[in-house]
Structures are given as C-alpha cells and as structure tokens.
Amino acid sequence: MRENLCILLLAKYIQLLRRQMIPKKIHYVWVGDKPKPQFVLDCIATWKKFLPDYKLIEWNNESLKSIKNNYTEEAFRNKKWAFVSDYLRLYVLYNEGGIYLDTDVEITQSLDSFLHLDFFSCYEKGEGNCYYPVTSAVIGAEKRNSIVYDLLKQYDDIHFENPNGLDLETNIIKITRYFSKKFNLLPPYNGTKETYLTNNSIIYPSNYFCTPESDMINFAIHHFSGSWLPSHSRKDKLKIFNKIILSRFIKLRDTGEPQLTSKEKIVFNLPVSKTKKYVLIIKE
C-alpha cells in the first residue's frame, strides 16, 4: 500500500515537471540613476533564500537599448521610471517567460507550485477592502503567453509624450480595462477567491502574493514602498504661450525633487509651507 502511494506521488511529480510551463526565471526592473536602497536589497535577498534555483534577471538602463518602443523611450526620456517598468515587465515575460516581481515584493516561500500554469497573478487589495483585478507586482507567465501578448499590444500604438502633455494613465487602469473586456471581469471584485480565466490561467486571492491575512496561505508580500512614485504631485496653475508655466508642487514623500519633462527648467522656487511650493518653469 505504501509502495503504491509512493509510486503514485512520484508519477504525479514527474507529470508536474513535464508540465512545467513557466521557467525558473525571476525578472525585475531597476531603471534610472539611483542605487538600490537597503529595503530593495532586503527584498531581493528573500528571493534568493526561497528561490535558490531560479535565475534572477535585472532589466536596467542598458537593457533598454535593444528594446524599441516609442512609449517606453519617451517615458525614459522624461525619467518616469514606473511607466518604463509597466512596459518592460510585459516585454520580458512575453519574450522569455518566468515570474516578474516588483522590487518591493518579499517572497515568503517557494513558488514552484505555480510553474505548471500558463499565467498567474492575484487580486490587489486597496483601501477599504476594495480589490483590483490583477496586481502588476507579481505576474507569472509562460513564454509567448496570449494574455501577456494582449497587455503588451496596448503599448504598440500609443505615445507617452502627447500634444496635451504626458500620458500618465497607470498600468492598473490598462490592466483593469483589458480584463473587463476580454474576460468580463467586472467590479465589485471578490479578491478572496480564485478566478479561472482559462483552465490554466488563474487570478489568486490577494493573500497569495499581495496582502497577507491571518491564518491564510501566503507566498509573497507586496510592501507598496512607492519607490516608483513621484516625490511631488504637480498642478499647473498658469500657462503663457505654453512656454512659461507656474506650477504648484506638493510633497508626497520625504526624499526626491519635483520631476520635470526633459524640455523643462526651473527658474524660480517659492516655498509656502513644508510640503507645498510654487515653481516657475520655462519650457524649451
């Protein structure tokens, strides 16, 4: 009896190995001109601890030189690193397959049990128990996956720089729109249950890869460090011939300077409080 059980378990394990669709690759993006803070290094250390036989691949400034996409090139030129990452994570998953992780994701146990899938992610839990359909912080996919292909195609014919300004639509909006049209995944989302997009493509509950819950299974924690977020919010109060701009900046976090486009220069700063200042900008 025991021998038969061992044979059955071994057969299932061999079947799982043969079925492995997602390669043991961890992709992450680090673009820009800043070194990784200790928090990011600590998160990466957990990947190495729990995924020791996975290949870690960093996609950085140098990697972008071989990738041709108008949206990404324009986002990079404007130092909007989050938007560069939005495209890059999909590009690498489609072309190589593997698991993409944001750099503020902590791994808590092995991800081997998901490698037989075509695609996986989880719901993302927001404020007030509100859920988003798919977190972009943890995505696993086989090479040439059709879902990743569809998400990637959204960037083919759009520009980050437009006549009316920069396209600051977040990837979560693009992802939500896609899943609502393709899979009729509509709010309110039940982020506590599994959603099967296909027989082998699954959106897991948020406690799997995003927000841990007491006495519930967890594989990763998304810490939402906001390292990709701008340090200031901006509102243009006055424009003269679209060349001279008076903008109000409000500080969102302790570090970082107001971000400008590549053609803008600050000529005057007027702080009005610890978190608010007005800035006169000239556009070339």
From TrEMBL:
Question: Its GO CC terms?
Answer: membrane
Per the record, the GO terms for biological process are: mannosyl-inositol phosphorylceramide biosynthetic process
| Transmembrane regions listed in the UniProt entry | none
Record-linked SUPFAM superfamilies: Nucleotide-diphospho-sugar transferases
Tell me which domain of life the UniProt entry assigns to the organism this sequence originates from: Bacteria
The record's section on PANTHER family has: INOSITOL PHOSPHOCERAMIDE MANNOSYLTRANSFERASE 1, MANNOSYL PHOSPHORYLINOSITOL CERAMIDE SYNTHASE
Recorded protein name is Glycosyl transferase
